[in-house]
Amino acid sequence: MSITGALQIGVSGLQANSNRVENISSNIANASTVGYRRTFSEFVTQNTGSSQAGVLTEVRASISANGNLQNTGRAADLAVEGGGFFIVSRTPNDPVESNYYLTRAGSFTPDQDGNLRNTAGYYLSGFPVDDAGTVGAIAGGDYGDLRTVNVSSYQMEGAPSTQVIMAGNVPAQETGLATPGDPFTSTLRYVNQLGGAEELTLSWQPSATGSEWTVSITDPAGTNYGTATVAFNDSGANAGSPASYVSTGLPIDPATGVVTLSINNGAIPQALEISLGAPNSFEGMTQFSGDYTPPSYSGDGTETGSLVRAEMTESGVLYGVFSNGARRAIFEVPLANVTNPDQLRSVAGNAYVATRGSGAVSMNAAMTNGTGAVVSGVLEGSNVDIAQELTDLIQTQRAYASNAKIITTSDEMLDETLRIKR
User: pLDDT confidence of 129, banded at 50, 70, 90?
Assistant: First the structure.
C-alpha cells in the first residue's frame, strides 16, 4: 500500500466518523422530539484497489423501534400503541397522493377551521362516517377517499318526539278531602318538528272523591288540551294502579291510558303520544300514600345539536359528543403499515414516505392486521437512548482521532521521502 493510499483511507475514515457524529448530534438534539426516530451510520468497506480498502457510511433509521408513551391529558394528542403510522397530508384534503406521508408524531390540535394538524404542520387524514354513524371497512393503500379530520363542521339534525312515557306517584291521602288541596304539576319536555325543545304542563288535581284525580295538559301559550278523570284502585292486587280513565276533553284512550295530542306547531300538526299507564298496571302513574313523586319522562326525539367535543377510541373511531347529549361516530382514522418500516424514506417533520425497500403502504383499521391501538391523551416520545448516544460519541471521537493519526503519520513519511530525494 502506498503512502498516498494510506492518506486516502485516513480521509475516508475521517469523513465516515464525521457523518456518524452528525447522526449522533441529531439524535441527542431530538431526544425530546415527539415521534422522532433514531438515525445511525453503518460503515461499509470501500475497495479502491487490490490492496486498498477505505470506508463509506450508510445512514439508517431505527423506525420500527417505538418510543415510550407519555401522558398529556389533551384529547387531541394521539399515539399508536403498537405497529402502524398515522396518515397525514401537507394541506387539508390534499388532492395530490404524493403529498401524503406516514408519521408517529400525533401532537394534533384543531386549526382555525377545525382541521387536526400536528406541530409539523401536517393534517391528520381519515374516512368520514355517514350521517347514520356507520363505520365502514378499511383496506388497501389508496389515499383518494381520505379526508382531513375536522372537529368543528358538524351539526346533528333534530328528530321530533312522537311518544313519551311517564312514571310517577300522586299521594293517595290528598284525595277524598272536603276541600281538596292545590294541584300537583310537572313539566314535560318534548322536541318539536324543527328540532327545538318545547314544554307541556301536566296538572294533577285531587278530587273530593277518594282515589280520584283530574289530569289536564296545557302549554306555555295557554292552550288547554283538555282534562280527564283518573280513578285509581284502592284495594286488591292492583291497589295503587290506574283503574279507569274518563275523558272530559282530553283525547285519551281508556284502554291504554295513552293521550294523543295534535300540536299545531307547523303546517302539519305534530302528533305526540303521552302514556299515563295502562289500567291495572304499575308502569306509568301510580297512587300510593306518601309524597308526591314528580313524573319522569322518557321517549324519543332529539334536539338539534352542535359538536361540543370529540373522543377517540382505541379502534381509531372518532366520536362526536353533541350539545343535545347525543354521541355518534364522525371519522374513522386508519393506520398504515409497510413490510419493512426501517427502509422508509424520511421527510421533514418526523414523517416518512414508502420506498421500494419498505414495500407498499397498506391501510387498515386500528387493532387489525398488525396495527396497534390509537390512544388519546398520549404522545409517543423519541426512541433515542441518551446514554447509548454518549457512549457512541466517545467511541466515534476515538476513531476519528485514530484516523487523524494515520494522516499525520503518512504526512511525516511523505516528508521523509522527499528529504531523501533532496
Answer: confident
CA angle 325, 128, 86 (to 5 degrees): 105
To 10 degrees, the CA torsion angle through 348, 349, 355, 359? 180
Task: Indicate if 417 and 332 belong to the same structural domain.
Answer: no
Residues 168 and 291 in one domain: yes
β-pair type (345-347, 293-299): unpaired
d(CA 141, CA 338): 10
Write out the E strands in 100-223.
100-103, 109-110, 116-117, 123-128, 139-140, 147-148, 155-156, 163-171, 184-191, 197-206, 212-218
Residues 137 and 265 in one domain: no
Count of domains observed in the chain = 3
Residue 13's pLDDT band (boundaries 50, 70, 90)? confident
Question: Model pTM?
Answer: 0.70
Q: Are residues 358 and 245 part of one domain?
A: no
Exposed/middle/buried for residue 303 (C-beta within 10 Å: 0-12, 13-18, 19+): buried
Q: Kindly state whether residues 190 and 294 are assigned to the same domain.
A: yes
